[in-house]
Protein 1
Amino acid sequence: MKRYSAMSLLRNALSHNRDWRPAWRNPEPKKSYDAIIVGGGGHGLATAYYLARDHGIRNVAVLEKGWIGGGNTGRNTTIVRSNYLWTEAALLYEKSMQLWEGLSQDLNYNVMFSQRGVYNLGHSLQDMRDIERRVNANRLNGIDAEVVSAAGVKRAIPCINTSPGARYPILGASLQRRAGVARHDAVAWGFARAADALGVDIIEQCEVTGIDVRGGQAVGVETTRGPIASNRIGVVVAGHASVLANMAGLRLPIESHPLQALVSEPIKPVLDTVVMSGAVHGYISQSDKGELVIGAGIDAYTGYGQRGSFPVIEHTLQAIIELFPVFSRVRMLRLWGGIVDVCPDACPIVSKTPVQGLYFNCGWGTGGFKSTPGSGWVFAHTMAHDEPHELNAPFSLDRFATGALIDEHGAAAVAH
Ligand code: FAD
Ligand code: PYC
């Protein structure tokens, strides 16, 4: 892979970037592929990368209806952590965390993974009991986690309000020090460039409009750029999972909801960690540009609009000001929404389907950015072997028939 030196950057700048090669090609779709990935978000691109790198399946197309990373990947608030309660979920997210820790080196692309820690605040005795239970469960699974007192929270985050007189007093928190944030666009671009270098065709402006199934076997897709054949199709379209499932005659236990986020005007560095509160219901970090990155819960209604309603924004900012009265005069700069795909147990589906050769990876809801590399890694395994990896076997579709649900609502952090 080509590395750019300071001299070559200077040469490119002086030549108005005339000789600068695009980071990935812009190929015409072929008539058929060994594997098709529908959806060019982080998860789809990661799947293509690991299919090519680890399983030698390189004749792969990623079909994206818009531009890569233009879905939830480019709209999320980038919190990465692995402090889930149940062993099945904890191990899956921890696999992802370990991949994050080497990702910039793997991809030769700086994804700006910053392990600045994530605090989950407790505001009642019951919150603190839940926090202790989760910290203990995490440690039993080999995941770093600790309980921090209110005084410890104040020492680490001087501008937070830990007054015992607050409406929701902070009694303590869980802390995962290896958790943090990353640069969302860079994750999509890094996986795209690395997958392209291994021969994967990334095809943007190519919407899948139908899935062809013959005799119970997936044989290809209809797209806005013509039909494309393949007997191995992975669908990774987040908020549109039910729409794609419907094309193959399947129904998924997924609801699609808007989830919003907003950023403030840039201010000087005041917050060098990530703070989340399930009870007050808001979360906040500060970006490298100085903007406060803020979010809360989903909009309760279902829909496909990439925007939400004003009451949720008002509630979100009330929560943040409750925790940080000092931010009450900071002005908000912009807000946006994505469409998240929510499962009844707040856990994903990474699974084979009743249609042979058709695989779905969805249901990550409000928390799938953190799992981008891990999700791609297990999904590539599932598609390559036609069998789930042991890490994603518990996340198969059949859990909704057997009842083996993995309830992670408590760790999902953003209520849904
Ligand atoms: P996407 O990035 O949405 O990719 C799916 C792609 O499929 C899209 O690009 C879309 O255009 C494409 N597509 C859809 N239909 C078709 C079609 N018919 N044909 C071709 N392509 C199609 N998670 C965290 O872990 N931490 C967070 O802090 C966090 N914050 C969030 C904040 C917000 C506001 C939102 C909206 C989400 C947040 N999430 C967070 C969740 C996270 O963003 C998602 O779970 C994750 O990014 C999903 O990645 P993906 O690649 O599956 O989906
Ligand atoms: O899953 O950690 C998370 C998260 C934070 C904000 C949205 N999702």
Protein 2
Amino acid sequence: MRILVTGGAGYIGSHTVLALLNSGYEVVVLDNFSNGSWEALLRVEGLTGKRITLVEGDIGDRGCLDHLFAENAIDSVLHFAGLKAVGDSMADPLTYYVNNLAGTLTLCQAMSCADVHELVFSSSATIYGDGHPMPLHEGLPSGRPASPYGRSKLMVEEVLRDLAGSDNRWRIALLRYFNPVGAHPSGEIGEDPQGAPNNLVPFIAQVAVGRRDELVVYGNDYSTPDGTGVRDYIHVMDLAEGHLRAMVALSERPGVSVWNLGTGRGHSVLEVIAAFERAAKRRIPYRIEARRPGDIAAYWADSAKAQAELGWWARRSLDEMMADTWHWQQGNPCGYQRKLGIATG
Ligand code: NAD
Ligand code: UD1
């Protein structure tokens, strides 16, 4: 089977490409490299000993998509391409809607013309919004996500439901990720944020490796066991494997299927710091500051549906997530630029 992976040069996409190649799939990656890395794909080829067909292009470019589908007999599409910085989406919502929403519409049009109707979409737990009892299960009504980024994910979910309702050839998975962290255990590929990381684990990793002086913990006055925010962190390789399970399951599931991809367990910021300190065998300096606007106290997944329907559950512990993050960060203190010899600030 030949799989199109949009955004395959990014963090989650590259780990999923690796899992696909190791499972015997052929892979075509479409990426515009707005936040992806050639080096990641070269390393995936090195790790797997397999070749990737790479198309440099944009999901919003219909001509590029039509050419790609004409040249490659695609069976299924894993759609990771998108912009994901919450703060940027507030500053520049139109760019987010054009990229994430309009780009997905164009992709679906091109798929339809090419008679490809199987799609796995990268959604997010952010679509549940605030105010639900925990854990979050797929049957809950979606809420109002706190940012244009989150709303672009919810809008795409709605569009894909309409699409599946209009034509029963479509088989679509909406995968709602919780908090992806970690790296491939080889330490060869991992998360490589541009600029200062917005998310907790990449920030801790950069403090540990000496690129930043200290972590700021946003609030210790939440109604959680230690007062800091609680999230459901999931290892990126568990997430990647969840995509393969979902894709296989889709062959017998017309319409839209929704699955949470989380561990079902919440961990506080202080627990994450402690786990990282154990993995890296060094102290992570931090100070407490006020809550970050828009943050909520705690959320985690009900992961029973994916377990029952896909036979998938997250196997890797928080300690493994931190150990693999550290292995990657220590070997690549400046991310993918290290082996290319590019100086970084
Ligand atoms: P990433 O930025 O590392 O990867 C996204 C990739 O898509 C990049 O390689 C980028 O160059 C590419 N891309 C962006 N816009 C494109 C376009 N218009 N055409 C072609 N390529 C394009 O992000 P990631 O963390 O790997 O996330 C993958 C997907 O999962 C995204 O859709 C993201 O919104 C979603 N998601 C991520 C998280 C997370 O915490 N990382 C959580 C929930 C959902
Ligand atoms: C963020 C996004 C969310 C996205 C998710 C995917 C925001 C507001 N939300 O969620 O849309 O779906 O990533 O992983 O960006 N923290 C610190 N110090 C830091 C960074 C974070 O204390 O420097 C805390 C936060 O307050 C939170 C926890 O760590 O309690 C996790 O934060 P983060 O990694 O940014 O993820 P989310 O906020 O859950």
